[in-house]
């Protein structure tokens, strides 16, 4: 299943819209070619998060898109998501694997650290995320992962799906795709674009080669 991590990996922007508005925001992005959708919501409104995650899981199934939950293995299990993405992994990765089972996709944030990526793989991660590649409005304090570092990661982890994140949009995605990463994780580059579906198509096309 990790081989499906390719092209546009869209991440919801965390704004509380309600189920219908969230689905309406995400559907053009999936129709535009997103191969992965991550639900990211840091609030403690658990009933709303549950409703939204279940609805998004169903939408992703319609489009043949992987559905990932950010930092909440329990919600991933309850919503029948394909996996979870962890910002920290150590014991949390083991706990997530025990809860979700061997077929779940577990990704880890490696920021700008190749040793951290190596540790993630050793702990059983299925894919590795690096960033921020460019300045990011979502996480302005995030460490920067250069294009050169992404190329180094591609050489060091040749069989592992690599995801680049941070400030990526339709204007700069070709630079990132040229490093050899498998996918780009994008929030504002699609959801804040004037035409999210068109932005999704443009970003996805950068990986058609």
Describe the overall structure.
The chain is α/β, with parallel strands linked by helices and 209 residues long. It has one domain (2-205): Aldolase class I (TIM Barrel). 42% of the residues lie in helices and 18% in strands. It has helices at 19-31, 46-63, 73-78, 90-100, 114-123, 147-156, 173-177, 188-191, 196-205; strands at 7-11, 36-39, 66-70, 83-86, 105-111, 127-131, 162-165, 183-186. It has an eight-stranded parallel beta barrel with strand order 1-2-3-4-5-6-7-8, surrounded by five helices. The mean pLDDT is 94.
How many helical stretches?
9
Cα-to-Cα separation, first versus last residue = 20 Å
Strand order of the largest sheet: 1-2-3-4-5-6-7-8
Total of domains? 1
CATH architecture: Alpha-Beta Barrel
Secondary structure class reads alpha/beta
Describe the main β-sheet briefly: 8 strands, parallel, barrel
* β-strand number: 8
CATH superfamily: Aldolase class I
CATH class type: Alpha Beta
Could you tell me the strand content as a percent range? 15-25%
Mean pLDDT reading: 94
What is the general shape? Answer: globular
Sum up the structure in keywords:
209 residues; single chain; globular; eight-stranded parallel beta barrel; 8 strands; 18% strand; TIM Barrel; alpha/beta
């Amino acid at each position: 299943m990790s081989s499906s991590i390719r092209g546009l990996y869209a991440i919801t922007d965390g704004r509380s819209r309600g189920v219908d508005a969230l689905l309406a925001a995400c559907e053009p992005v999936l129709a535009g070619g997103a191969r992965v959708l991550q639900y990211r919501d840091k609030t403690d409104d658990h009933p709303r998060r549950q409703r939204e995650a279940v609805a998004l899981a169903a939408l992703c199934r319609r489009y043949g898109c992987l559905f990932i939950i950010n930092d909440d293995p329990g919600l991933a299990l309850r919503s029948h998501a394909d996996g979870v993405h962890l910002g920290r992994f150590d014991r949390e990765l083991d706990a997530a694997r025990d809860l979700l089972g061997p077929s779940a996709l577990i990704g880890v944030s490696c920021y700008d650290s190749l040793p951290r990526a190596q540790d993630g793989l050793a702990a059983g991660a299925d894919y590795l995320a690096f960033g921020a590649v460019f300045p990011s409005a979502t996480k302005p304090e995030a460490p920067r992962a250069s294009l050169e570092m992404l190329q180094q990661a591609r050489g060091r982890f040749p069989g592992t799906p690599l995801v680049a994140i941070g400030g990526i949009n339709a204007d700069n995605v070709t630079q990132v795709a040229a490093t050899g990463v498998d996918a780009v994780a994008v929030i504002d580059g699609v959801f804040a674009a004037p035409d999210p579906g068109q932005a999704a198509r443009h970003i996805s096309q950068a990986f058609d080669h």
